Amino acid sequence: MTHEFHRIRRLPPYVFEEVNKLKAKLRGQGVDIIDFGMGNPDMPTPKHIVDKLIETARDPKAGRYSVSKGIIGLRRAMAGYYDRRFGVKLNPDTEVIATMGSKEGFANLAQALTAPGDTVICPNPAYPIHAYGFIMAGGVIRHVPALTPEEYLSGISKAMKHSAPPPSVLIVSYPSNPTAHWVDLDFYKDVIKLAKQHDLLVLSDIAYSEIYFDNNPPPSILQVEGAKDIAVEVNSLSKTYAMAGWRVGMVVGNSRICAALARVKSYLDYGAFTPIQVAAAAALNGPQDCVEEIRGIYKGRRDALISSMKLAGWDIPSPPASMFAWSPIPEQYKEAGSLLFSKLLMEEAGVAVAPGVGFGEYGEGYVRIGLVENEQRIRQAARNVRKFLDQSGQILSKARDQMPEPA
Predict the structure, then answer these.
(1) Burial degree of 202 (CB within 10 A; 0-12, 13-18, 19+)
(2) In this structure, are strands 249-253 and 324-328 parallel, antiparallel, or unpaired?
(3) 85 with 19, same domain?
(4) Three-state DSSP class for 239?
(5) At what angle do helices 274-285 and 72-86 cross, to 10 degrees?
(6) Contact criterion met (CB below 8 Å) for 208 and 322
(7) For residue 272, what are the CA distances in angstroms to 260, 264, 306, 335, 352?
(8) Sequence-separated (6 or more) residues with CB below 8 Å from residue 84
(9) Do 174 and 213 fall into the same domain?
(10) Do the beta carbons of residue 264 and residue 112 sit within 8 Å?
């Protein structure tokens, strides 16, 4: 008997899986792939954080169950970070939940807030969990084009008029993954005003709050007066402290939403390994020069990428924030689309990027490039890309010849 699993059927084929399979195949053949495809920090976690983990792990009690919403020391450290960085006061008992990464926090927020059939307004393109966390929880996604923050904001009002039932949740995410756009506090003021007019809860993802380059530090939506009435913010230590694999995030803000998340989590997990939580508190409470150093490395890579790719013939817009560049496909390959372009770039140039269509239909025509290789490798990639662009006619002709005949 073949069972159809309801939630699995609601998920489309994973676009990135095609690229990942090709990457594995080529590497198996000994091809050196310069991999900009995944936002996976390659820098070591700062030493004082690792030392605190090791010290705490030696405690004989360290292996016991932890607390699903996070140990109090970590929640206080998270509240302290918000106070220092944004001037936002949070009650660590009622307005802070420690999560196992921002992705888990977002997915479990969807479980906590969504009834079957609820409509959620989501930017498109967007990080996949923003939509699929709610889809797996039974929600319906109203995709709003978001190639710029202005386009998204204007589209929200249209979505409210033409959605039935009326949406109950609005998602914002800046600095954005994948578009790398940044917003100021006025944008959030408009979001909160709009959300209150339409009785919406707001989920703000600010996982890249500390990776910024040519502008002031990105603000928090919780800085807006009255935001805590309807909003929570999802944040993470993954990129700030090069701790992606440690899986430490947070959900902060509205106490009612935090309580709902805490209740869901109490049924699903016991929280992260306690020494990881203690080390995360040390990261937030300790010296922050490591954050500036990590930010500086990303800036150097960004500048190397933009300048070297321009010389190669590919004009990539310079991202103001995040660890990504969001680029239109080079003119020679426009008709190929983002998925085929990404495959050809990997096969012919040994360079992996993420196809924009994997972030939603409005991401077609773009690719996301992660700043996760060092400057030498970035320049090597640019040399490969130059040959790839110069030979575009031959490469596309060969690709067309290899395509199966239509049925």
Answers:
(1) buried
(2) unpaired
(3) no
(4) coil
(5) 20
(6) yes
(7) 19, 15, 38, 46, 32
(8) none
(9) yes
(10) yes
Which of 304, 348, 230 has the alpha carbon at shortest distance from 340? 348
Amino acid identity at 131: A
- Does 407 map to a domain? no
Q: How many helices (H) and strands (E) does the chain have?
A: 14, 12
Which stretches of 359-399 are assigned E, i.e. beta strand? Answer: 366-370
Helix (H) or strand (E) holding 176: none
What are the DSSP calls for 101-149, one per residue? HHHHHHHHHHHHH--TT-EEEEEES--HHHHHHHHHTT-EEEEEE-SSH
158 and 187 housed in the same domain: yes
Q: At 342, give phi and psi (nearest 5°).
A: -65, -40
Q: Tell which of 223, 257, 285 closes a domain.
A: 285
Cα atoms in the Cβ-side hemisphere of radius 13 Å centred on 66: 25
The span from the CA of 104 to the CA of 108, in Å, is: 6
Show Cβ contacts of residue 340 under 8 Å, excluding neighbours closer than 6 positions.
Answer: 333, 399
Residue 401 belongs to some domain of the structure: no
Does one domain contain both 222 and 256?
yes
Question: What CATH number is associated with residue 28?
Answer: 3.90.1150.10
Tokens at 261, concatenated: 């998340």
What span, in angstroms and rounded, lies between the C-alpha atoms of 54 and 343? 42
Tens of pLDDT along the chain (407 residues) come to 566 777 777 776 667 788 889 999 999 999 999 999 988 899 999 999 999 999 999 999 999 999 999 999 999 999 999 999 999 999 999 999 999 999 999 999 999 999 999 999 999 999 999 999 999 999 999 999 999 999 999 999 889 888 888 999 999 999 999 999 999 999 999 999 999 999 999 999 999 999 999 878 999 999 999 999 999 999 999 999 999 999 999 999 999 999 999 999 999 999 999 999 999 999 999 999 999 999 999 999 999 999 999 999 999 999 999 999 999 999 999 999 999 999 999 999 999 999 999 999 999 999 999 999 999 999 999 999 999 999 999 999 888 877 665 54
Integer Cα distance of 279 and 299 in angstroms? 26
Residue type for position 155? G
Distance CA 214, CA 206 (A): 18
Same domain membership, residue 340 and residue 195: no
Amino acid at 129: I
